[in-house]
Amino acid sequence: MKRPAQHISPGGLRGRFRCAAVRLCAVAVFWLCAPLLQAQGFDWQYDARMPSDYPDLFLGLDVAGGASAYSGQLRHTEKIDDPFDGSLVCRECGVFDSGSDSYIRFGLRGEYWLDALWTVRAGVGYVSADIEAQRDLPDLPSLEYGLISSELQFESTRRRLAFDAGLRRRILDRISVGGALSAGFLLSETVEQRQQIVAPAEAHFEIDGVSSSSRIVEGELSAAADLLFSADLGIFYDAPLARGLYAVSGLVVSIPLHSATADQSWRGYGLRLNVSLLYGQP
Hints:
Layout: H1 10-37, E1 57-81, E2 88-113, E3 118-142, E4 146-170, E5 175-199, E6 205-206, E7 210-211, E8 213-216, E9 219-221, E10 227-242, E11 245-256, E12 266-280
Antiparallel strand pairs: 1-2, 1-9, 1-12, 2-3, 3-4, 4-5, 5-8, 5-10, 6-7, 10-11, 11-12
C-alpha cells in the first residue's frame, strides 16, 4: 500500500532554509574565530591527547640591519696655522647637507600578549652605525695638473645602547602593524675627515707619501647627541616554528624626533629589517 505523498508548504520550506542558513553562519563564524581563541593565533595543540600550554610572555634574541638617509646642516671646521704668529686658528670649511649610514643591531626582545590581537613589545640592543658624507671643495690651481677637483669626506662610527618599547596589533592571520618609541645612548664615536682628489686621476698629495687623499688631522665636527629619540612604525609577520616558538620579521621605518648632533640640525630617516626569535615562558 503506497503512502500518500507529503506536501511541504512554502512557509515550511522558508523555515527549514532559515535554520540551515543559521547553522552555516554559526559554523563559518566559529571557523574564522577559532584561531583567535588560541593564544597568539597559533594552533600548538596538535592532538587532543597532547594538550599544549599557551603562555603570554615570550623572550628571545633580536637582530636588525638597516640604513638611514641624513639631511640638514653639519658644519665642518679645520684648524690651520695663523700666518702671523703660527698659532692654530679655526676656519669654517663648509657644510655637509646630506649623508647616509648603514647599521646593525644585536640584542634581546620580549613580547607580552594581551590577547590574540594585541601585544606589548620591548627590546634592548647594541647598535653599531657607519656614517659617511661628502661635499665638493673649490678647485685647487696647480702648475703641474691645472685645476684639481676634490671633495671633503666625513666618516664616523657610532656605537649606541638602544632601548625600544611599543605595541603591535594583528590585522590579518599572521600580519600585524605596530609602533614604538626608541632611545639610543651614545657609547663611543670615532670621526675621520679626508680631502679626496676627484680629478685629474694622476694628481696627488705629497703629504706622508704620494696619495690621492689627505687626512685632516685638525678638523672638528658637531658632536653626536648623547641621547637620541626616534619613533618607529612597522609591519610584521609571525611565523610559528615549533610548539611555543615563533619568529617575528618586520620592516620598520624610523623617524627622528630631534637632531642627531648636539648643536646642528642633522636628522637621519631610517629603514631596517628586524628579525626576532621568541620562546614562550611558563
